[in-house]
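Title: Prediction job returns without error message
Component: structure pipeline
Severity: low
Priority: P3
Assignee: unassigned

Description:
Job completed but the reporter wants confirmation the result is attached to the right record. Sequence as submitted:
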Amino acid sequence: MAMNRRFFLMGTAGLALGACAGPHSSFDREAGVLIDEGGFGNPTMNNHLVQTGRISLAEIMSRRFHAEVPSMVNFAFDSARLDGEAMAILKQQAHWMRQFPELRFRIYGHTDAVGSASYNQALGMRRARAVQNALVSLGVPRRSIEAVVSRGQTQPLIVSEGREPANRRTVTEISGLVRRATRMDGEYAQILHRRYVSSASDGSD
């Protein structure tokens, strides 16, 4: 009885393996053939591009900033007041910016097309300054924001002559580093290390 049971179990295992070994199975191929490299080589490639001067550290961090934090806040018509939604976004920006004192930022103010060009130029600047002041109040050093700039109505997201909420905005961008680094010199590694330490201490991902 025990012998019959043993053969039964071996037969069942054989059938299971046989079912897996179809034309798309890795059992009949060389090891590793189905491994997907995905983005495995990206960190090495980034380091190489920075060290050879083909990409800057500021560019790498700018991509991270836009991937991890909303860079834009919107405003009501003819207003530079920051509402609750805008402040929630700016808190995220400020948290990210405080972790990287090596970086410098620039804030661009925009408007829709209603009103004169000169009025909208001034309105765009008021919006940019409102965001700057809010970020400073949230702990971002004022020196980290190297400039506030008004684009007025000249760079709409949506081309419209009327009231367009999407165009009433500010955009926060990384503009560079405290000093221009032509080589890595461990600077990027230090930034990443500080990022991970901060993530572990505050419980964020």
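Comment from assignee: result matches the submitted record. DSSP finds six helices and four strands in the chain.
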